[in-house]
Amino acid sequence: MAFTDNSLVPRSRLYPDESLDDLLRGELKLIQKRRGFRYSVDALLLAHFVLPAAGEVVADLGAGSGVIPLILARRGSPHKIIAVEIQRRLAGMARRNVQLNHFDEIIAVVHRDLRKLPEILHPASFDLVLSNPPFRPLGSGNLSANREKAVARHELRVTLAELLQVARRLLKPSGRICLVYPFERWSHLLAEIKQAGLAVARTQLAYDRKGGQPKLGLVEARIKGRGKAEELPPIFIETEKGKFEL
Asked: What backbone phi and psi angles, to 5 degrees, belong to 176?
């Protein structure tokens, strides 16, 4: 699992087009763009769904500004988190967020095309691989003029099938892969998981509100199935107390 990446940015640096925001009700601080790519409820839901057990080694494929690794380091007890981000500016931002919150010993940020991870990371070395992947195939929906948003939402740099193959390769035989995906493409996600030789172990749907419609799906898959998949109770993004928070 060795790699070299010395392009760290001083933790005090904040650029004019960035904001410094609270995360987890002030438990963490997060640098992100004022306009453009910003984290959404998807990341909070996935972090809540996957909270790792003590001592687990975790890989986040497509870490963005580092929101999920920060939450897992703060609320969970992982041994190590490798946060992989293909976009250079977001990877730099993730590094600054890791340093700002003093998680340098737990989280390592890697700027790399995830399809090339097998070149630097040992196979079968992770207990948990997670991702909030691009969900729109090329030619569908409106492609954002903002490059960071476009790469995060559309399969410009990696497809779901490619991501699952890499995740499967990195996963220990007893490990798990967890994803969040729009419910409108839920059947596509489940089909791709099966095609990758994985078995669904656990699912949970996130509704916009009670009595509303499912918006997002969360899934845990494993290399070896354990019988019928567990269906967790639904979770609601909007409640009488406000938006979903951890």
From this structure: -140, 150
